[in-house]
Amino acid sequence: MQKKIILLFLLFQVSSFLSQNLETTLQEIADDFGVMGMSLYVNVNGTVSETYIGHRDYTRNLPVNENTQYRIASVSKSFTALGLIKLINDGAIGLDDDISEVLDYELRNPNFLNIPITCRMLLSHTSSLQDGSGYAPFLDATYNQSPIPNISELLLASGSNYTANMWRQEIPGTYFTYSNINYGLIGTLIEVLSGQRFDIFMREQILIPLEVDGSFNIQDLIDINNVSVLYRYNNGWEAQWDNYQGIMPIAPNLNDYILGTNGIYFAPHGGLRITAIEMNSIARALASDGAFYNLNITEENYQLMKAIAWDYNGSNGDNYGGLFNRWALGLHHANLSTSDAICIAISEIFIGHPGEAYGLISDNYFIEGSDVSFSFLINGVQQGYQVGTAAFYTIEEDIFEAICMHINQILNQVTFNDINFEIIPNPAKSYITITLPSELSNSEIGLLDIKGKTIKSIRTENKESIDLMLLGISKGVYFIQVNDGEKSSIKKLIVE
Question: Structural domain tally of the chain?
Answer without folding.
Answer: 2
